[in-house]
Amino acid sequence: MNRVESDKFPNTIEGVITQPWQFSSLNKNDNNRIFYTNPSETLKIQSGKHKGELDKLNHNAWVRSLSNTIKVYKGSERGISKSALLYYSPRSMSRDKNGNPTIPKWDFNKLKEIYVAGVRASYIKMYTYKESKKKGQRK
């Protein structure tokens, strides 16, 4: 919702989610992609003794995710992200030849890091634009 309200991104949820390279589940070139076009099918165990049974762990995660999405959309929750528009997890980034995590190719001079109590920056780094404004606001 932060992105929908920002003048830097599309003004619809679908527009934000479907922007190229925003979410790996929509990136057709991402080998780790899991695209949930039909959660009841994609959340079934794919092989082994329990093939075809509901993967309860993934199903429960999907239900929680959907429930939280609805709460945020309706405005009853905004989560920990405060005004963050960009974020990444240093721990999940690929490594360079020296073993250091790579970072996104963003212009960090235009960004301000957001620190949230209880969230370690080594797990998630969140940013907003230094001069970001919400749609409809005057400068």
How would you describe this structure in keywords?
139 residues, alpha+beta
Question: How would you describe this protein?
Answer:
The protein is α+β, with helices and mostly antiparallel strands and 139 residues long. Helix content is 23%, strand content 9%. It has four helices and three strands. The chain has a three-stranded antiparallel beta sheet, with no helix packed on it. The longest helix has 19 residues. The protein is globular, with a radius of gyration of 18 Å. The two termini are 21 Å apart. The model has no long low-confidence stretch (mean pLDDT 78).
Strand line-up across the major sheet: 1-3-2
- Percent helix range: 10-25%
The value of Rg in angstroms is 18 Å
**Largest β sheet strand count, sense and barrel closure:** 3 strands, antiparallel
> In what range is the share of β-strand residues?
5-15%
Shape: globular
Overall pLDDT confidence: 78
Number of helices: 4
* Unreliable residue runs: none
Helix/sheet category: alpha+beta
What letter string, H or E per element, gives the SSE order?
HHHHEEE
Through-space gap between termini: 21 Å
Number of strands: 3
